[in-house]
Amino acid sequence: MAADPEQTNPSGGLNRRRVLSGIGVGLGVGAAAAAGSVLTHDHDTGGRATATGGTAPAADGGSQIVAFRGPHQGGIATPAQDRLCFAAFDVTTTDRGQLQQMLTSWALAAEAMTKGLTVPGDAGDLESPPIDTGEAEGLKPGNLTITIGYGASLFDSRFGLAGRRPSQLKALPQLPKEDLDPGSSDGDICVQACADDPQVAFHAIRNLRRLGTGVVAPRWMELGFGRTSSTSPAQATPRNLMGFKDGTRNIDAGDAAVMGDHVWIGAEEPQHWVRGGSYLVSRKIRMLLEQWDRDNLNDQQNVFGRAKASGAPLTGKKEFDTPDFSAKDASGDYAIPMDAHVRLAAPENNRGLRILRRGYSFTDGIDPVTGQLVGGLLFLAYMKNPDQFVTLQRILGAHDALNEYIKHLSGGLFVTPPGLAPGADWGAQLFG
Ligand code: HEM
């Protein structure tokens, strides 16, 4: 195990001298075994640790470090960062020990990277590939969070985990009007890396993938170039690719009571090891952008039930005004139409049901056949029970006016375990 490198000095900066032991499995094991390399931060740039020298990060204020350990994993209640790199993996080994060892190495690497350090283990050995791929050196920690999740398939017969499967982790039912691509859905393990710098997020996924060589293979991956939700009232509401403010009535992730009621898995779950975690539903939703861009403003607003410019409900004036679902316009129709997205999704109309949305805009470039833009929303949402998503999507999939302009391409359901206590790691947490 690596020594915990986070030791604060009296002036509040990070202690620059770290002695870390090797952690690699699979590729680069030889170099990773080189225990005792000294990692240091580059003080002048406020950047990441390097093997060559330097000092504290974020000299210009704010450490940009989100705590890796604690009761909950980072990246859920953490105020949504600007960028995302998300990957799902299939486990390719049949060796339970190898999988456990990889997860242990991932936790140590993830902890180091969130602190703005390089992946531990590099000895500067000229004959071996470096353990850390290097592209994040000199960059700030960027509020990086690395959140791990497990799909239902991991709890099949391969690794003896069937007895530890969380009770709600099972295939989602077929939902209205959906035809998801199985090849780019699901996965045994998922990793969500969020940061305010896209290269920091990409570096995190790339390096975990590298540490997992011979144990896991990537199944699908997506880059998110802009957050589409605010998860804290301190954040300005961002806009999605349809140009609408998104996240206005999202859960405030800083509200512990609401998070306890709707997001964190609690005592209702018989598998103790996932209490304090959360279920993550992902959906890659393409927006038919050219079609949307030809729609008139009035119709666009009716689709959501909100004004495009201000984000106000069609029954209000300001963004945070509470929608009035009973209000009618001069012609006697509901001011927020019956098929408007917010009417169908609102807790008032769903027995108080809420989810924490934490999605990102994506683009896959241009469709080579049609020449159209391929882009949309990588919908990510955390909840106490996946039934919350199923209930909402049954209604939205069947009735939402938005359906004319979107298409669900792929998806996944994962359980994200609680955060790690000091000394704990993902391998031991999963296998018990
Ligand atoms: C491309 C697809 C989608 C887009 C563009 C979109 C966009 C929006 C927008 C603009 C709002 C209003 C602002 C806000 O309160 O955040 C909203 C609200 C909401 N959406 Fe979506 N959404 C999409 C898909 C989904 C899906 C798949 C779900 C869940 C199954 C969902 C659940 C919600 C919920 C719960 C609200 C809050 C409603 C309220 O409390 O008023 N959305 N969405």
TrEMBL record:
Alphabetically sorted, this entry's keywords are: Heme, Iron, Lyase, Metal-binding, Oxidoreductase, Peroxidase, Signal
Which family does the similarity line name? Belongs to the DyP-type peroxidase family.
Textual note on the cofactor: Binds 1 heme b (iron(II)-protoporphyrin IX) group non-covalently per subunit.
What positions does the domain Dyp-type peroxidase C-terminal occupy? 237-419
Location in or out of the cell:
Cell envelope
One Pfam family hit: Dyp_perox_N
Query: What are the Dyp-type peroxidase N-terminal domain coordinates in residue numbering?
Result: 73-225
Please give the chief subcellular localization of this protein.
other
What are its E.C. numbers? Answer: 1.11.1.-
PANTHER family per UniProt: DEFERROCHELATASE, DEFERROCHELATASE/PEROXIDASE
- Per its UniProt record, what NCBIfam families does this chain match? Dyp_perox_fam, tat_substr_1
Q: Which cofactor does it need?
A: heme b
Q: Which reaction does it catalyse?
A: heme b + 2 H(+) = protoporphyrin IX + Fe(2+)
Q: What is this protein called?
A: Deferrochelatase
**Briefly, what is this protein's role?**
Involved in the recovery of exogenous heme iron. Extracts iron from heme while preserving the protoporphyrin ring intact.
Species per Swiss-Prot/TrEMBL record = Streptacidiphilus cavernicola
